[in-house]
Amino acid sequence: MAKKITVKLVRSTIGQKPRVVATVRSLGLKKINSTVEHDATDPILGMVKTVSHLVEVEETK
User: Fold this and answer.
1) Which of 4, 17, 29, 43 could disulfide-pair with 9, CB 3.0 to 4.6 Å?
2) Where do the domains of the chain lie, and which CATH numbers do they carry?
3) Residue spans of beta strands (DSSP E) within the chain
């Protein structure tokens, strides 16, 4: 079974490039302080790394 991560949007996407905004939206985050849980797969971890300056990540069980 894959590990789970919780991703929380902590900074606004205002002023970011459209590609970064699209990545945040594709993770399922819309508003500041919104959280979403994902499996820790390679595509998800790559997206999180791309927007790491806007989000906080925690490993959940």
Assistant:
1) 29
2) 4-60 (3.30.1390.20)
3) 4-9, 35-39, 55-60
